[in-house]
Every structure is written in structure tokens, then in C-alpha cells.
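Lab notebook: predicted structure, single chain.

Context: the supervisor wants predicted structures on file for every construct in the current expression panel, including those that have not yet been purified. This is the next one on the list. No modifications to the sequence; it matches the entry in the shared construct table.
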Amino acid sequence: MVVLKGAAPSGERNFYARDETLKKILGEGLPKDFFRYAQRELHSFGKLAAGDIDERARHTDREGAPKLEKYNRLGEDISHVWVNEGYKKTVDETYRTGIVGYVHKEIPELGRKGNYLYSFAQGYLLSQAEPGFYCPVTLTMATAYLLDHYADGHLKKQFLPHVCATGDMELFEGATFLTERQGGSDVGANVVQALETDEGFRLYGEKYFASNAGMAGVAMVLARRQGAPEGSKGLTLFAVPWTVDGELNGIKIRRLKDKLGVRAVPSGEVEFDGAQAFVVGNPENGLKYMMEALNLSRICNAVASIGIMKRALDEAAEYAGRRNAFGQKLTRFPMVQDSLMKLRAKQEFETAAIFDLIGLYDRVTSGSATTEEQVLSRLLIAILKKESAEQAIHFSHEAIEMHGGNGYIEDFVTPRLLRDAQVLTVWEGTANILGLELIRLVNKFAAHEVFIEHVNGRLSQLQASAGVEWLKGKVQELHEELMAFAGFDAALQSFEAKGLMKNMAQLFENVIALEWAERQGGIYAPLAVVFTELSWGTRAFGEDMTSVKHFNEVMEQ
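Prediction complete. Output recorded below exactly as produced.
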């Protein structure tokens, strides 16, 4: 029986134990003592995620979704969000791992801070079981980032230790409230007001899509001070505690959203009626700060996407390896072998590409990146967020199809994967919004030239081969398209942006594939060939079936 790595029966599963690619990524990216620590901790968390957290996620999705308890028995508005006990246990166990906290404080055993590489490895494992809960984790990561980078000493001392709690004190989950009903992605249209009083600022207005409502100890909120200019430049960032002295801080939840998927996270309509709020950083830089947090959240979104991709692939491979049809296992049929190998190639190299970006992001957030690397980081975040979110939906669809009718039945995880994946193309920026980000980066920072220089530099480090020379030709083609794109008018740029982003993502991932084939060898060499065929359609009709030829070699590893 052919079973993909990590695709053991549910009782034996451990999302980390058999993931050799993730181990190689961490082994190359972490200091030796940190890697030993990570190996042990991720092995434990991988087992927890594949076992108890996965079972709780199923219960939350089917029967235990959050509920709004609007009033108490006296008719008072308490805006309390009920969550089931299993969800609470997942919250406690996950934050204790330091998935948020150890980015900002020392890991006691190591005597040094962690980093985003380790945090996102944890998020990747968590998302294979519960991408819904990874949303609150993401919001807490963004809240910690904003407090750590921009809050003054007093405000940081008040909130950051709680946001970064690892079982050592009361946990404050975080939230970032941007969306208003009249604005949506047009954040500059926001109208929530911040009125200054003798006792500080008070917020008035509503946020229309506020995730982690009722669960957050502190929310990061954009609001407009009196006299501030219209548009995005007039927005200030505020830290808003959910409660003050045990009572609601002038905050009410009108209702919770009835969402297609990610039902674990309570998303609601939140009203501010005199909520106490504290200015974070320079009052005139509110949107700038929030966009920094948004970029972090976009990486989280991409990590959730590859988590869903991995789980979908594992489920498809396991089922195909067990299912008999027409007298033999599904994995004996060339069509099935081709499908699984193409998924495997895309999943492996998209994962490697996103963790390559995460290594760059660690340098950016530590202040050690060059100006060009900062631009490259923003560009890669946009194109890989878009690509991975779309692939998460595709992988979920393919997993359902591999299961046939069973894939559509809620007894299996596949329907939930598809429902949870669908939001990833929407959260943190749709494809259209990300296309506008590409345009901005090209027009303002010549990001297309930075990108081409980067991929050419990496290709030049590889040994000469037919594959490398062929890809250099694709780089030249894309370079010409990008140079033309930079000269287009606004309408034509917006029309072409999304197609270009697809090609840029495939090109970057193809460079990663060739690097892994040369550096690691083994299964990555045939997978790189399959990836190239999949991405660019290089296989001619009737030619050698590369995916089928190497199926047993790759899928039995």
C-alpha cells in the first residue's frame, strides 16, 4: 500500500514526525541547540494537533460553534461569547507552546527569543487540524507585533506580557478590527470616532467584521480623532481592552456572523459606545502600523493555506492507498498517480517557498534586512499569499474528488477543509487587493526589478543544466512582461496584475524546486521536474509520464 508520509491512520498520526521537508527547513534555518529544542517540541505538538486538537476541531465545526449570549437573566447586555470546553483546552495548550509568546520573549530552556520560523512551523502543524483557531492565533501575533514595535513603554508593559503569555500569567488573546460596513477593503472610508476626554480617548461607532470578538483581551482598532483629515491618513491606531475592572469596556457585540467555514473563530459586529482606548505610536501613522501587521497576517494566511494543502494531500493519498476499485488499489492507476504526484510537487515546493519567505521576514523584522530585501519581502508576501490561498481550495477539491462520494460526507474531514480553505482567498486581502499591492510596489519601489535580480542571482548559483537554462529563459520572458507592465496606465495595470502574480509565484517556486533538487537530491529531483511540467505545461502530448514513472519512488518515502 502506498501511503504519503504523515498519512498514518488517525490514531497513529503525528503531523511533524514524518514531515522530512519541514525538518530540513528547520535544520537549515535554526541554530543547532534551537533545532534540537524545536524537534522535541514540534514532535509533541504534531501529535497533539493530529490527535486531540483535530478531534476537538471536528466537534467545534459540527456541534460546538461559538454562540453569543447577549443578555444575562436580568436583561443586561453582557455580550458574552460561549465556546466549548474542548476549544478552551486547545487555546490553552496552543498558547503554552509559545506560538506567539516566544517570538517576543526568551524561551527559558534556550535563554534566547524564538523567531517567526519556529512560530510558523507550529502554525503549519496547527492548521492541518484547526485552521479556524489559527485565525485567533494570527490576530494575537499581529497584536503582539504592534505592541512590541510601536507602543510606548507604559502601554507595552500593560498589555504585551499578557498577549505573550505562555501559562505564566493570564492570557489576553488579540484582535485587529479594521472592517466597517461602508468601507470594507477601503479602510480610508472608516468613520469610527475617537473623542478625547479628560480621562483619555473614547471610541464610538461599529466594526462590521470583527474576528475573535468576545475572546480577545485587547483589540487593536483604527479610529479617527476629532479634526483628523479624511481618508487613510487620518486614522490612528488604538489599543482597546475588552474589559476594564471586570466590566465590558463600552463594547457590545450585535451578532456573530454565520460563516461558511472556520466556525471555530467567533466573528461579529462590534459596537463601541465610549470604549476606553490608548493611542499606539504616532497618532498619524495608524494605517501604516496596521499595514505592517497585515503583512504578518498575510504570511499567517499563507501558512494556514499550506497546512490545509498538506492535510488534503495526506487524506487523498491515504484514501487512494486503501481504496480498491476495478480489482486494484486506486494508487495503481496512472491517472491517480499523476494527480497525487502533481499535488505532492506543488505542496512540497510551495511550502519550501513560503518558509524561504519567512526566513527573509525574520531578517526584516529584526532590522537586519537591506532596503531591497524589505521590498522583496512585501512582494513575496503578496504573490505567495494569493497563490497559496487559491491552491488550498484546489487541493481541498482534489481531495474530495479522490474520495468520490465519501469526500462529500461530513464524516470525513474533506468537506471542512474545503469550507475552511475558501476564506483564505478573502481574509487579509482578496486577489484584487493583492493585485493593487503589486501595482503599488512596482510603481513606487520598482519591485519588479528587485524580483528579477533576486531570482537571477539564485539561478546563477546553481549548476548548469537543461532545467536551469530553460528557467532562465522564462525569467527573461517575465522580465520583459514586467518592464512593459511598469509602463502601462492604471487601468491596464489592474487588468494584468493578477495574471502576472500567478507567473511570478510559479517562477519563484520553480527556482526553489531546482535548488532543492540540487541541494537535497532524492525525491526532490523528480518532483522538481513534475513541478515544472505542472506549472508551465512543458510536457508534450504523448511524452514520457514523469509523474507516473517516479510515483513509487516518491510516494513511498
